Amino acid sequence: MQCPQCAGILGETQYENIPVHTCAHCGGEFMTGVALASIVTARETTLPADMQNALADAKPFAGIPESQKQRALNCPSCNCPMTVLNYCGDSGVFVDRCDACHGLWLDQDELEQIQILMERWSSEAPSKLRSIAAQLEESRKTAAQSTQAHFRQSRFAFINALMNRFLDAA
Ligand SMILES: [Zn+2]
Ligand SMILES: [Zn+2]
After folding, report:
1. Chain segment 130-164, per-residue pLDDT in tens
2. Beta-strand relationship, 94-98 and 82-86
3. Among 31, 61, 131, 142, which is least packed by CB within 10 angstroms?
């Protein structure tokens, strides 16, 4: 396969024991949605501290900026157009998804960014959840309506599990 970003050749590698195709030249990565969901929930890799610090103040970001919309990459697997998506609806990490085969393209470091966001969300959510539960449920519903199945996993499944636990305890 050829890199959609720089036309380099993609090689197959493993991340958290899951196969991904990476470009040695630009560092981009291609994988299935199922593979990405497995990677962000596997959490076996300890991410570099400087990368974690850089993302420590990241705020939720909804929507897609114009600069991202203009990317127009083609899928390295089936050559169909890819659409830019905001991972999990408001993560502010933008991934390209193939309209046809649903393969995902991540630029260099985006996979790690997603993983860091998920880990931080998992560790911070319990203390904050009570005060913003209604808000969360609202954004969860909105995201579920507008987001593809592969992107609904991880964060929103986690919110659901937590909210159910609070309801049980009440
Ligand atoms: Zn490349
Ligand atoms: Zn494709």
Report:
1. 555 566 566 656 655 554 444 444 444 444 444 44
2. antiparallel
3. 131
Burial of 87 (0-12, 13-18, 19+ CB in 10 A): buried
Instruction: Find out whether 6 and 25 touch, Cβ atoms under 8 Å.
Output: yes
> 15 C-alpha vs ligand 1 centroid, how far in Å?
18
Chain segment 9-40, per-residue pLDDT in tens: 999 988 767 888 999 889 899 988 888 777 76
What is the 110 CA–ligand 1 centroid distance (Å)?
A: 14
- Alpha carbon distance 158, 125 (integer Å): 9
pLDDT band, residue 87 (cuts 50/70/90): confident
Find the 119 Cα to ligand 2 centroid distance in Å. Answer: 29
> Who contacts 97 (Cβ-Cβ below 8 Å, separation ≥6)?
33, 82, 83, 84, 85, 103, 104, 105, 148
Amino acid, single-letter form, for residue 14? Q
